[in-house]
Amino acid sequence: MSTKIFVPCDTTALAMGADEVAARIEATASARGAEIELVRNGSRGLFWLEPMVEVETPAGRIAFGPVEEDDVEALFDAGLLDGETGHPLCQGLTEEIPFLKKQQRLTFARAGITDPLSIDDYRAHDGFKGLENALKLDAQAIVDEVKASGLRGRGGAAFPTGIKWQTVLDAPAEQKYIVCNADEGDSGTFADRLVMECDPYMLIEGMTIAGLAVGATQGYIYLRSEYPVAHRIFDEAIARAEAAGYLGDDILGSGKRFDLEVRLGAGAYICGEETSLLESLEGKRGLVRAKPPLPAIVGLFGKPTVVNNVLSLAAVPFILDKGGQAYADYGMGRSRGTLPMQLAGNVKRGGLIELAFGASLRELMEDFGGGTFSDRPLRAVQVGGPLGAYLPESQWDLPLDYESFAAVGAVLGHGGVVMFDDTVDMAEQARFSMEFCTVESCGKCTPCRIGSTRGVEVIDRIRAGENREANLELLTDLCETMLDGSLCAMGGMTPFPVQSAMKHFSDDFKR
Amino acid sequence: MSGFSEWTPQLIQDEIDALKHKPGALLPILHAIQNRFGYIPSEAVAIIAESLQQTRAEVHGVISFYHHFRTSAPGSHTVQICRAEACQSMGARSLEAHAKEKLGVDYHQTTSDREITLEAVYCLGNCSCAPSVRIGDRIHGRVTPEKFDKLVDTLTTRALEVK
Ligand SMILES: Cc1cc2nc3c(=O)[nH]c(=O)nc-3n(C[C@H](O)[C@H](O)[C@H](O)COP(=O)(O)O)c2cc1C
Ligand code: SF4
Ligand code: FES
Questions:
Q1: Which of A288, A434, A452, A493 is the pocket-test mutation for ligand 2 (most atoms within 8 Å of CB)?
Q2: Among residues A386, A421, A456, which one ends one of the domains?
């Protein structure tokens, strides 16, 4: 009987050598005459263990990690194929690893368990049940289910998804579009990438349901060019879904049509902003559009368009399968459901942590993360990407929900958590925030384009000790100008990390 | 070996013709050209403009807006270093300094033997195993200066001149 062995194929596993490990496992098995079935599964998102090799046993899957190529022989010697757990890299039963066991995985329920491209695997784990239900409902009933879930957009702005869909449903037009925002530009985030690499049919299903809900027959996924692995896997998933009748002109024999196409971005952070993204999809420079009109009314090629983040759309199959209420049962206050957080940077156990809203940042960083990678004291945390505030220890007990964060001038954004130890120079981080804005500004408005350039210069002077007090005051004013006078959040939020660094880490601006 | 083809006006036209029926075809066309030839030759601008019935200024404006598109030939290998926050927290700043010194070039420059073009990138989605580097379509995690040297050395047959 052959033993099933799993070696993940997501970007991080590959970046840590998964292909080499897989090849070595196959070679070793064949040299020893052992029969194995090697599956390239998605990642569970336990990134400090990647490449995390799993072996199927009667008791469940047993994990080993992080496995290097040169560990393979010893793992075989230690009885890898017989489910022996004596090797030092053995983590025990995968499902019992605390980092995983303590999570509430709704969106990431399948990630790492299945072969991402296997439609059979997807179906065996509740795949396409939401779509089957949606095909029995009228458009309004689908939108109502999403409204009942309380789902708010996971791309950053946290706008209620059901209300956005209602606007598009109510807009009369021959042609409407579903656009999936897979630009995931925030440092410290990779949840969208994981969906596309580890469970691509979930996103295909979510977009198809969105199409049925608002009457759109064409969907585009705007994917950043920095994600070559996601691109390859997702394109293949679309082709297979088409061949199996889940996409195309007659979805599951319903007579309804929905087509999908991936479009690649080209290395511009601002194209994650939804109107800039639409300009880019139209083949133009990614200049931000003034709102109104909302994309829901005048969107892609002037037509009503749903623009949603990957995670928002990926939550939809669960909602249509188990019901909006089942999703809303998780969470706190007006933040319903689960939020996939991403723990990154200087962290011992980094990865994907999906939890109901309401856990604290400290739980995430200490219980899940195990502190810093460097073993030095943790000093600052940036939550919500490059436009998110830096939080000092006094704010680590905040519950993770949109309103609690907003109350202290911080954002949850797309759920990225980047940890820094005590070697960080916060004035240097503030400078980078401004520098990033100079590089990525679309250039449409002066406070953002010129303000950020001036911001870099002023911080340089402060760091050099030139007229420090006067320049700190100038920086404060500059931040106010950018906050008030920018058309979009690029210029309007770049001050968040800068102001929080000045406020909570003021010593760093005086040395 | 770069794996890129030499461009000719006809080959560029072929890439355009395969895609120009798509709505919003310009970005897919630019990607196709750069994937095949390594960059977007200045002569391509006029051909694209003509085919899509846009002005050259419009096409040029789009090319220059996006960091990904380049208008001169890269070296055989493109090495991108992540400069974003999660990588910074794990030593990306010293890694980039090391890389520039090792290769003797700054960002957007190519080594004198035309082997390696160095580029900056802002996040590769590998932020839990930082710092990250991308070489071609391969991403590498936990890249220390030593690991960087090894990666680069396997790319080049000749030893690089260290300044
Ligand atoms: C500068 C900037 C960058 C953004 N980047 C992204 C991104 O990469 N991915 C994303 O989903 N939303 C991003 N957004 C938010 C989008 O504009 C938009 O709110 C979102 O795609 C809507 O989808 P949702 O309602 O599902 O969140 C960005 C916004 C700004 C201002
Ligand atoms: S704030 Fe910056 S990125 Fe946003 S529209 Fe203005 S110039 Fe463009
Ligand atoms: S910040 Fe470098 S990979 Fe994400």
A1: A288
A2: A421
Both A201 and A279 in one domain: the answer is yes
Cα separations in angstroms, B109 against B42, B67, B79, B113, B123: 18, 14, 11, 12, 20
Instruction: Give domain status of residue A113, yes or no.
Output: no
Same domain, A137 and A283: yes
Q: What is the pLDDT of residues A313-369, one digit of tens each?
A: 999 999 999 999 999 999 989 999 999 999 999 999 999 999 999 999 999 999 999
- Which helix (H) or strand (E) segment holds residue A459: the answer is helix A446-463
Burial of A502 (0-12, 13-18, 19+ CB in 10 A): buried
Examine residue A446 and state whether it is found in any structural domain, yes or no: yes
Identify the burial level of A153 via C-beta atoms within 10 angstroms of its C-beta, where 0-12 means exposed, 13-18 middle and 19 or more buried.
buried
Q: Are residues A411 and A439 in the same domain?
A: no
First to last CA, chain B: 24
pLDDT in tens, B4-20: 999 999 999 999 999 99
CA A508 – CA A393 distance, rounded (Å): 16
Residues A178 and A315 in one domain: yes
Helix pair A426-440, A495-504: axis angle to 10 deg: 170
Q: Residue type for A29, please?
A: A
d(CA A455, CA A461) in angstroms, rounded, equals 10
pLDDT at B158 over 50: no
Q: Nearest-5° angle of CA A312, CA A314, CA A317? A: 115
- Give me the interface pTM, i.e. the ipTM: 0.97
Tell me the per-residue pLDDT of A249-295, one tens digit each, with 9 for 90 and over.
Answer: 999 999 999 999 999 999 999 999 999 999 999 999 999 999 999 99
Strand B77-82: give its sheet, edge to edge.
Answer: B109-110, B116-121, B77-82, B133-135, B138-140
| Domain with A449 in it | 426-509
Count CB-CB contacts under 10 A for residue B61. 14
Beta strands in A378-478 (DSSP E): 378-383, 390-391, 416-421
DSSP H helical ranges for A83-199 = 98-101, 119-124, 129-136, 139-149, 161-170, 191-198
| Total of domains in chain A | 4
Q: Please indicate, yes or no, if residue A292 is contained in any of the structural domains.
A: yes
CB contact under 8 A, B89 and A285: no
What would the mean pLDDT of A161-188 be, rounded to a whole number?
98
Question: For position A227, which CATH number holds?
Answer: 3.40.50.11540
Interhelix angle B42-52/B56-65, rounded to 10 degrees, is 120
Q: Phi/psi at A37 (nearest 5 deg)?
A: -115, 110
Chain pair A-B, CB pairs under 8 angstroms: 153
Q: How confident is the model at residue B157 (pLDDT cuts 50, 70, 90)?
A: low
Do A200 and A256 reside in the same domain of the chain? yes
Q: Are residues A213 and A251 in the same domain?
A: yes
Alpha helices, DSSP H only, in chain B? 9-19, 26-37, 42-52, 56-65, 85-88, 92-103, 145-155
> What residues of A are in contact with residue B61 (Cβ under 8 Å)?
285
Q: How many CB atoms lie within 10 A of CB A149?
A: 27
pLDDT(B2) > 70? no
CATH code, domain with A44: 3.40.30.10
B65 touches chain A (CB under 8 A): yes
B60 chain-A contacts, CB cut-off 8 A: none
Residues A74, A94: Cα–Cα separation, whole Å: 20
Contact flag A189-B25 (C-beta cutoff 8 Å): no
The answer to whether residues A155 and A309 touch, using CB atoms and an 8 Å cutoff, is yes
